[in-house]
Amino acid sequence: MNFWPAPPSGAKGRGEEKILATIQPSTRKARSPSTLIQQMEEDLLSGHFRPGEWLKQADIEERYEANRFDVRMALKDLSARRMLEHLPNRGYRVSSLSDKERSDLLDTRAILERAAMVLAARNVTPQDLADLREILDSFAANMLSGDLVYLRQLNAVFHDRLYAICGNAVLEEQIQALRHRAQNGFRGGWRTVESIGRSHEDHVRMFNLLEAGDGEGLVRLVDRHLHLRDQTGAE
């Protein structure tokens, strides 16, 4: 089962087109309000727009080839999820978190992830493990590629698949929402090959603990891994 975008030089496989859209800033025509929201969210999470950057409606219409009504709906949706700020009579800008707000988000996410990992260790299936192993193998095969955008995408896919194992859709959605808010517009990330390797090693340990059904070990590792994310901007 494929979960990630093909490397830029490779051919796309089944299910890769949707994720591949996050590799570059979106320039495809938005054919529906939901598509426009998805494309804008992808660009916000990839750091294409800077924190505090103003988004002009006319520019958004041109960039995504969308009509005015759909752009307004997308801006309202992203504002409601606090990825954008709406200032009356001024417009919308990319949300910018203070250090305290980012720390609070991380603490809250850690609480939710602890619960999710306990459930995941209890609910994991052989298919879950096979899916995670496939993602890990792809990451390992591309660690030295230098394509950080592609590696970040693989990283996100791993975490999304891991959250899904908990079997609680509400918990999964809340973790992802907090993760998106913390990453919104953030341009930090892995700075060395060693930091990429440390992140991958943590993911492999998560896999091993999950395979062993060790929920307590997963909780301890997730806490440490989130601290690594707070330092590097990449999980």
Mean pLDDT: 81
Please compute the radius of gyration using only Cα atoms.
18 Å
Spatial gap, N to C terminus: 23 Å
Number of helices: 10
How big a fraction of the residues is strand?
under 5%
Structural class: mainly alpha
What series of H and E elements makes up the topology? HHEHHEEHHHHHH
Task: Tell me what the structure shows.
This protein has 235 residues and is mainly alpha-helical. 64% of the residues lie in helices and 4% in strands. The protein is built from ten helices and three strands. The chain has helices at residues 17-20, 33-45, 57-64, 68-80, 99-123, 126-142, 148-164, 169-183, 193-212, 215-232, and strands spanning 54-55, 84-87, 91-94. Strands 1-3-2 form a three-stranded antiparallel sheet. The protein starts with 16 loop residues before the first helix and ends with a helix.
Summary keywords:
mainly alpha, 10 helices, 3 strands, globular, single chain, 64% helix, 3-stranded antiparallel sheet, 235 residues
How would you summarize the topology of this molecule?
Blueprint: H1 17-20, H2 33-45, E1 54-55, H3 57-64, H4 68-80, E2 84-87, E3 91-94, H5 99-123, H6 126-142, H7 148-164, H8 169-183, H9 193-212, H10 215-232
Antiparallel strand pairs: 1-3, 2-3
Structure described in brief:
This protein has a three-stranded antiparallel β-sheet with strand order 1-3-2.
